[in-house]
Write the structure tokens for this entry.
Amino acid sequence: GWPASTRPVLRPGCQGTGEQLRERLATSADLNPVAAAARRGRPFEASLAEGVRRFQARHGLHPDGWVGPATLTELNAPVERRIDQLRINLDRLRQVAQDLGSDYLLVDLVGMQASLHLAGRVVWSSRLEVGQRYLQTPSFRATLMGVVLNPSWTVPAAVARDALLPRLAQRPEQLRALGLKVVDGAGQELSPSQVDWPSRRGESFPYALVQPPGPGNPLGRLKFLLPNAHSVFLHDIPAKRGVPAGNALTLALAQTCIGIERPHELAVLLLDQPGSWSLNGLRDEIERGDTRTVPARRKVPVLLLNVTARVDERGVARFLPDRDGSDARALDALRRPFRPDPSSPASPARPAR
């Protein structure tokens, strides 16, 4: 482990040598131990600031080279907590990665990063835009089945009830301003004046709110299909949403999206038909405006994980904060004593009474 520090701020040029900080960074290999020993007693200078930046980058902090309150908190996290983070994330991975081959798509919701692995190599990676609703999604595994060009968007029922219906009950004309239409169970569009808009959140609403395909669609121009019990899918990040900040639809989007950057590149890799689908060919087909589902030739497993600890390809451990308390709940479960399920066939038979 390492000793804790209480000094609130350290930065290049400040008074003192930062000796304790130098030893702490050497302990976690953010500074070379030999080089750190050679610079013992020197002021806080460029090499020490570089070690701080390396530590900050490993812990999801802004790498400015200053030791402020947030960096100090992560520096003082005991080694036992880091070991627990590794245990928790190993357990999450074991739940979804059984018999995993060398081809898969990893979706890291906490790190907001997606990466496609083919033949054991990362061939594509992207930043994610993750809605608050999905930061609490449990880890799961699904299979990516295809790509939808020019998808429509159906507002999730819970989001419609909480974010949109109370406003539409007051001003139904806002429906068209939001670019939405209301559809009945048979898929027929209704006029806003035909709908009995519920004004209370608990009321049932027998219709769906749908936004047609187009440049302003919340899903962008591409959606990736991965059937699962959590209603999660990946989609394009639209360049312009066409909705003012603070609008009810903006709130709905913030809760529900898992958008990816550079989705066209991912689609071409998954369709895996160079003679039929190139980047230019895909974009040309999208510009036609027709909604079309194209089966993926590479039906890769998708691992959707809340990753708060991982080891990169160089063997460097990286840690991220537990934003929703899921680490604490997982650790509590890991620490409970094992109790066999009496209903399991593998459990010993109960003695007769």
Notes: The mean pLDDT is 83. The radius of gyration is 25 Å. DSSP finds eleven helices and 16 strands in the chain. The first helix runs from residue 19 to 27.
